[in-house]
Design brief:
By secondary structure, the chain is mainly β. The chain has an 18-stranded antiparallel β-sheet, with no helix packed on it. The protein has a domain of 35 residues. A hairpin with a 3-residue loop joins strand 15 and strand 16. The protein starts with a strand and ends with a strand. It has no helices and 18 strands. Helix content is 0%, strand content 67%.
Length: 178
């Protein structure tokens, strides 16, 4: 009892060794832990799991409502992906964050969105692209130049410090702000 603790009854098994190593097999989940460095837990009632090796990474996987989500987290990188379980047609989303940039994509029937910024911790360049029902729109912003540009089939709009120019379906324009 001082070094090893075991619990056992129908549908349940758990043991501790030296107060920091633990293995559990409960009716709803299984877990193995070496405190504080390693932890692995898995659900029995659904498709979900979490694995972590502190302080290096954590990985999570969840499947529900026809979607599969995978998340990876480390001190230098983050990634999250959502997609249909069977890999077929449907909603998809992906986000990646790292010190030098951030990227996010999502798509589904009739739309697609992309967003990027560099570097990730202090955005100096931001790029955005949208496709919605066949109409594409692009945007770009550059800091510290105070430059912004947005373009689609119907319009164009550009800002550079105190100047703004572009066109839309009604007119062309050039504006100087003072």
């Amino acid at each position: 009892m001082l070094f090893v603790d075991v619990e056992k009854w129908p549908g349940h098994l758990s043991w501790h060794a030296f107060w920091f190593i633990r293995r559990t097999d409960y009716p709803k989940f299984k877990q193995f832990r070496i405190f504080p460095f390693y932890n692995s837990i898995e659900a029995k009632s659904g498709k979900a799991s979490l694995d972590s090796v502190f302080p290096f990474f954590s990985y999570r996987r969840v499947e529900k409502e026809g979607l599969k989500e995978k998340t990876f987290l480390s001190p230098l990188f983050y990634s999250n992906n959502i997609e249909p379980v069977d890999g077929g047609i449907g909603y998809r989303e992906s986000s990646k964050f790292y010190w030098l940039g951030y990227n996010s994509n999502s798509s589904g029937p009739g739309f697609e969105k992309n967003f990027s910024m560099f570097p990730g911790f202090l955005p100096l360049l931001i790029l955005k692209s949208d496709l919605n029902n066949g109409i594409r729109s692009n945007s770009m912003m550059v800091l510290p130049l105070f430059y912004f540009h947005k373009r689609s089939l119907e319009e164009s709009d550009t800002w550079f410090t105190l100047l703004r120019w572009g066109h839309n379906t009604e007119k062309k324009f050039l504006i100087f702000y003072h």
